[in-house]
């Protein structure tokens, strides 16, 4: 029996009266999470400033799927966010996914990145504290908080990098080491979210997410690279590989991530105040070149590739050690990367007009 099956929170969620508040709910992960909770019959309140390409399409898609309320709001507006939490203080789960999401964007405009990811997160935490919510509060952090991990030795193995002695991946014991303004802002927010449990007793959980992919990901060159490659491969757009293309990531299908959010909420009594590394794990580690090969096979074309210099802070390899999530949440990924990428490309094919 999993944690999900035996908890009151899950019973509550399965009922039609659950309310889920999703900041950034019009984004890729947010709209997939919203869809899951709508399927369960919950009321979903989406808070989003709709700044992300595709967010309006995601809201239109959600609109047909159940009881969803969109509040167009910016998390930098403290008073607005506070009012909104007051109004929805009966929410049963809060997902904080809103953010400035690209490393390159953070380098070109570090102040805006800071204001959204740190300032915006403080606003959300303060609003939750003042609303005296006891609901599980999940924050989407990133593996980038571990930096370039120069203490971890890496070697080349054909078309991919691999760890010399971390075959199970990087655990939560890895020291934090922020490289890039994005890592600084997400990492600061990650620490605030954990501290709001210690100091104020909020039921917070931090997910240090690896590379998430799937349908409704309007990937662009600067962010959402798996979707960007899938879109470019299908639409015949040129693809630039930064670095040698042998860098490896553990891909996690978005529905598996939503499973983990549900499992954390169900187990909140035991896991509040914890951080988890969440990704596809070593079984779903794949290099850019290997992914491109697979996409080329699926689209039956030779992809137009060019190479450019490494991006600052780019890790040669990152694989999440997901044993803690498995042990404490009863969670593991269900979708192998080939199957998940096939589902992503099906979505791309069905939505060519939105993606061109
Ligand atoms: N996708 C990944 O692989 C990945 C990996 C690690 C962490 N994350 C984190 O997960 C979260 C969700 O990522 P995603 O891939 O769904 O990105 P996304 O860009 O699709 O979603 C983010 C949403 O936040 C909204 N937003 C941005 N700034 C806002 C603001 N100031 N106020 C209100 N809304 C705002 C955007 O309009 C968008 O809908 C982000 O916090 C991101 O840093 C994502």
Mean pLDDT value = 94
Q: Roughly what percent helix?
A: 40-55%
Largest sheet: 7 strands, parallel
Ligands, ions, cofactors = nicotinamide-adenine-dinucleotide
Rounded to the nearest angstrom, the radius of gyration is 19 Å
Low-confidence stretches: 1-6
Query: How many beta strands in the DSSP annotation?
Result: 15
Indicate how many domains the architecture comprises. 1
Q: Could you tell me the CATH topology label.
A: Rossmann fold
Write the CATH architecture name: 3-Layer(aba) Sandwich
Share of residues in strands: 15-25%
Number of alpha- plus pi-helical segments: 14
CATH superfamily: NAD(P)-binding Rossmann-like Domain
Q: Class by helix and strand content?
A: alpha/beta
Strand order of the largest sheet: 3-2-1-4-5-8-12
How would you summarize this macromolecular structure in one to three sentences?
With 356 residues, the protein is of the alpha/beta class. The protein has helices at residues 8-14, 28-39, 55-63, 78-87, 103-108, 110-130, 181-200, 225-235, 254-266, 268-271, 288-299, 323-329, 337-350, 352-355; strands at residues 19-23, 43-48, 68-72, 93-96, 137-142, 154-157, 160-163, 204-209, 211-213, 239-242, 248-253, 274-278, 285-287, 305-308, 317-318.
């Amino acid at each position: 029996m999993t944690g999900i099956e035996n908890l009151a929170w899950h019973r509550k969620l399965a009922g039609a009266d659950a309310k889920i508040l999703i900041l950034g709910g019009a984004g890729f992960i947010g709209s997939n999470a919203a869809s899951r909770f709508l399927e369960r019959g919950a009321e979903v309140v989406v808070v989003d400033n709709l700044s992300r390409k595709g967010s309006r399409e995601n809201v239109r898609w959600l609109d047909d799927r159940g009881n969803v309320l969109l509040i167009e709001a910016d998390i930098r507006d403290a008073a607005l966010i506070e009012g909104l939490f007051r109004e929805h203080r009966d929410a049963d789960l809060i997902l904080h996914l809103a953010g400035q999401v690209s490393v390159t964007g953070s380098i070109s405009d570090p102040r805006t990145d800071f204001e959204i990811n740190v300032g915006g997160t403080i606003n959300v935490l303060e609003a939750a504290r003042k609303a005296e919510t006891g609901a599980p509060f999940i924050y989407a952090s990133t593996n980038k908080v571990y930096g370039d991990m120069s203490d971890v030795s890496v070697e080349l193995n054909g078309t991919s990098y691999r760890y010399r002695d971390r075959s199970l991946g990087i655990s939560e014991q890895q020291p934090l080491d922020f490289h890039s303004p994005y890592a600084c802002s997400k990492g600061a927010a990650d620490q605030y979210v954990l501290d709001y449990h210690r100091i104020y007793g909020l039921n917070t959980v931090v997910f240090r997410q690896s590379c998430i992919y799937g349908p409704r990901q309007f990937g662009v060159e600067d962010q959402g690279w798996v979707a960007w490659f899938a879109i470019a491969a299908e639409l015949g757009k040129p693809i630039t590989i930064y670095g040698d293309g042998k860098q490896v990531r553990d891909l996690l299908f978005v529905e598996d991530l939503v499973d983990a959010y549900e499992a954390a909420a169900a187990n909140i009594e035991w896991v509040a105040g914890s951080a988890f590394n969440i990704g596809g794990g070593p079984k779903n580690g794949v290099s850019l070149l290997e992914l491109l090969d697979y996409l080329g096979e699926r689209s039956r074309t030779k992809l137009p590739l060019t190479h450019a210099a490494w991006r600052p802070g780019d890790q040669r390899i990152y694989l999440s050690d997901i044993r803690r999530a498995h042990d404490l949440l009863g969670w593991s990924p269900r979708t192998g990367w080939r199957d998940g990428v096939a589902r992503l490309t099906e979505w791309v094919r069905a939505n060519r007009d939105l993606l061109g």
